[in-house]
């Protein structure tokens, strides 16, 4: 095994274990050895985070474990980010994210953000309790290709439909794809409000954005 | 003042009509018909009532039915009480609810709420940021003095005055773990399980104590039963192991204290709690309330001999988006799964959104009359 491979595997493991200190040291080593930072994120950290998602799906990990892994990943990403060699010709795909109005449950949305960030997308994070009009405005202003919305309460879910309706009303629906997620939502609900895709959990977000923006 | 006085007269009239309706129904029916109070208490005691009690968890739904905005009732007891009485008279389900789940306990301990115009509040700024600085400052609130607690208790008293003895009055107290999350911020509290378990347990201990002090006031105000709810213990969020380490010992203490006050208690935890149903029953609650991620037949089988089961009509999908026929069908299936032998209450899986059509609540109530009568 090459030294680089070994380092990536250790990075992945530090994420799975939620080991912030380990992740920090390993990220610093990547920088010191002049290893490609983007590669370290994608083949080290993101691989670890995928493993975390698998463990979450299998019911071995729960939210506290996922949060701990995410925070370890974040520590490493912060160190590696300034060293990513930006390809000036490729403009990253922009994704608008937010938790709909009246809802402050943003743990899932934050996880989606971390994963999309790591996968190289430009994330415009509107935060939580986002007024309906902000989604369309942010998508227009940033030329975003995808809008991702989440709601954790049955009482705030209807806000997602309002956003889709507003996209239609402002003749912007065909310019963006819409994905939704959050505990009370379902694929059936996504279809009923005219969204393009539903994500079962945070880990499915990268795959969905990839498929929605495939050209 | 005149407005409030008028509001009180309206409520008192409404109350006369409601109690008269039940007296009349009782006189007219040949077979003894139970009052909602008798019905719910029988189910909680694992007996067979005349029919299955039906308790949609209605809060903002009633507020909208009565033509108010949610922010109005946050500061006006009489309006909230009116909305409850107005809706139960119109739809005839089996329980009135105090102004529940507005994080009033956490607000009274220093968390700052955000109160939108027409939807329920959320915690905007949690009270506990730095454990070492903030924990020593925390005080157990006085239920009759601090924050919004006196206003909520006043509502409980008014509900009891209006329908007490005929319709059960439900008082709400957050589960200690939810209260903890609302004082610390959920994400941080979840991470504290890993990074800061000792400080977290100290906060949980204070939260539990304050829930017990407040619960005592809720019982004194006239609540016939207490709803303890804990969405933050869902199987979609924390492991059974974490539930047993961080939540269960404190929750059991809270619920057992309520039981010693002579009140009935039901515990509701949202989401997939299939792996912790037995632990939930071990808290000593009279009833366990679950949402649509739990199969009622399995719950009945597993813990139905020890506790009453409540559930689990989907508020976000079935009640909000489907037809009265669909609602009836889902209720029928729920009744078939769990009513046998008594000890079952047909409830919604969680709080009902304001936009749910009235016909769907009516369909839920009708379904117990159609399919939920005990022979």
**What is the helix content of chain A?**
40-55%
If you compute it from the alpha carbons, what radius of gyration of chain A comes out, rounded to the nearest whole angstrom? 18 Å
Strand order of the largest sheet of chain A: 2-1-3-4-5
Encode the helix/strand succession of chain B as letters: HHEHHHEHEEHHEHHHEHEHEHEHHEH
CATH level-4 homologous superfamily of the largest domain in chain A: Cobalamin-binding domain
Please name the CATH architecture of the largest domain in chain A.
Answer: 3-Layer(aba) Sandwich
Uncertain segments of chain B are none
**Which percent range describes the beta-strand content of chain A?**
5-15%
Provide an overview of this structure:
The complex is a heterodimer of chains A (215) and B (375). With 215 residues, chain A is an alpha/beta fold. Chain A has nine helices and five strands. Chain A has two domains: 81 residues, Methyltransferase, Methionine Synthase (B12-binding Domains), Chain A, domain 1; 119 residues, Rossmann fold. In chain A, strands 2-1-3-4-5 form a five-stranded parallel beta sheet, sandwiched between helices. In chain A, strand 4, helix 8 and strand 5 form a beta-alpha-beta unit. The longest helix of chain A is centred in the N-terminal third of the chain and has 21 residues. Chain A is globular, with a radius of gyration of 18 Å. The relative contact order of chain A is 0.12. The model of chain A has no long low-confidence stretch (mean pLDDT 90). Chain B is α/β, with parallel strands linked by helices and 375 residues long. Chain B has an eight-stranded parallel beta sheet, with helices on both faces. In chain B, strands 3-4 form a two-stranded antiparallel ribbon. The radius of gyration of chain B is 20 Å and the shape is globular. The termini of chain B are far apart.
């Amino acid at each position: 095994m090459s030294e680089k491979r070994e380092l990536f595997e250790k990075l992945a493991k530090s994420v799975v274990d939620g080991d912030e200190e380990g992740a920090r040291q390993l990220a610093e080593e990547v920088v010191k050895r002049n290893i490609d930072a983007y590669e370290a994120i994608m083949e080290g950290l993101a691989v670890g985070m995928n493993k975390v998602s698998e463990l979450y799906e299998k019911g071995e990990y729960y939210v506290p474990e996922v949060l701990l892994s995410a925070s370890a990943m974040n520590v490493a990403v912060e160190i590696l980010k300034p060293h990513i060699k930006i390809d000036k010709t490729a403009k990253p795909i922009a994704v608008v994210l937010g938790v709909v109005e009246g809802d402050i449950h943003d743990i899932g949305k934050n996880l989606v953000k971390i994963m999309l960030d790591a996968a190289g997308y430009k994330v415009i994070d509107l935060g939580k309790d986002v007024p309906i009009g902000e989604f369309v405005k942010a998508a227009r202003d940033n030329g975003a290709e995808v809008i991702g919305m989440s709601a954790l309460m049955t009482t705030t879910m209807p806000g997602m439909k309002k956003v889709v309706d507003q996209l239609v009303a402002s003749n912007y629906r065909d310019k963006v794809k819409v994905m939704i997620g959050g505990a009370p939502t379902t694929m059936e609900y996504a279809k009923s409000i005219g969204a393009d895709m539903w994500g079962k959990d945070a880990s499915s977000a990268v795959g969905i954005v990839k498929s929605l923006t495939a050209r | 003042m005149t407005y409030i006085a008028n509001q009180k007269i309206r409520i008192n009239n409404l109350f006369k009509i409601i109690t008269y309706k039940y007296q009349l129904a009782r006189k007219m029916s040949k077979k003894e018909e139970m009052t909602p109070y008798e019905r719910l208490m029988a189910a909680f005691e694992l007996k067979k009532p005349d029919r299955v009690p039906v308790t949609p968890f209605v809060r903002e739904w009633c507020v909208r039915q009565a033509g108010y905005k949610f922010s109005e009732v946050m500061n006006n007891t009489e309006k909230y009480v009116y909305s409850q009485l107005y809706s139960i008279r119109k739809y005839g389900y089996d329980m009135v609810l105090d102004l529940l789940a507005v994080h009033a306990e956490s607000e009274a301990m220093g968390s700052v709420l955000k109160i939108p115009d027409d939807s329920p509040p959320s915690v905007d700024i949690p009270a506990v940021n730095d454990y070492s600085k903030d924990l020593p400052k925390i005080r157990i609130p006085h239920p009759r003095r601090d924050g919004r607690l006196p206003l909520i208790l006043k509502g409980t008293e008014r509900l009891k005055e209006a329908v007490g003895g005929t319709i059960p009055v439900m008082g709400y107290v957050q589960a200690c773990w939810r209260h903890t999350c609302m004082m610390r911020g959920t994400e941080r509290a979840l991470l504290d399980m890993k990074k800061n378990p000792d400080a977290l347990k100290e906060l949980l201990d204070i939260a539990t104590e304050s829930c017990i002090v407040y619960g005592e006031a809720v019982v004194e105000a006239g609540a016939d039963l207490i709803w303890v709810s804990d969405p933050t213990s869902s199987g979609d969020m924390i492991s059974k192991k974490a539930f047993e380490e961080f939540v269960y010992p404190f929750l059991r203490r809270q619920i057992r204290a309520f039981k010693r006050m002579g009140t009935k208690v039901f515990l509701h935890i949202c989401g997939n709690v299939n792996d912790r149903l037995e632990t939930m029953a071990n808290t000593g609650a009279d009833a366990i309330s679950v949402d649509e991620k739990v199969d009622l037949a399995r719950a009945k089988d597993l813990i139905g001999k020890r506790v009453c089961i409540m559930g689990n009509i989907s508020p976000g999908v079935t009640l909000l988006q489907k037809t009265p026929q669909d609602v009836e069908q889902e209720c029928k299936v729920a009744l078939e799964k769990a009513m046998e032998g008594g000890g079952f209450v047909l409830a919604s899986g969680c709080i009902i959104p304001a936009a749910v059509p009235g016909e769907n609540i009516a369909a839920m109530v009708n379904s117990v009359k159609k399919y939920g009568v005990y022979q």
